[in-house]
Fold:
Amino acid sequence: MGRIINKYIPKAYSRSVGGIIQLGGTILHTLRCPGFEEKGAVEKAAETLSINNVDGLVVIGGDGSFRGALDLGRKVMH
Structure:
């Protein structure tokens, strides 16, 4: 979720994401984002989603991804 914290969400088009399935978080710059555990990071991510009119987020990953998504979801809901 590194890019979400930094207020940058790249546009994803079918042509730009074709053939990246094996890269996963590497291409999205989301894997093991230590910055998401820093104070204020969840708030920054929630702000980024709001600024970009994102009303849904699909999280695919492991326990860390899901814990981060849960924290983010709790922040967005309040």
Q: What stands out?
A: Residues 2 and 29 are 6 Å apart (CA to CA).
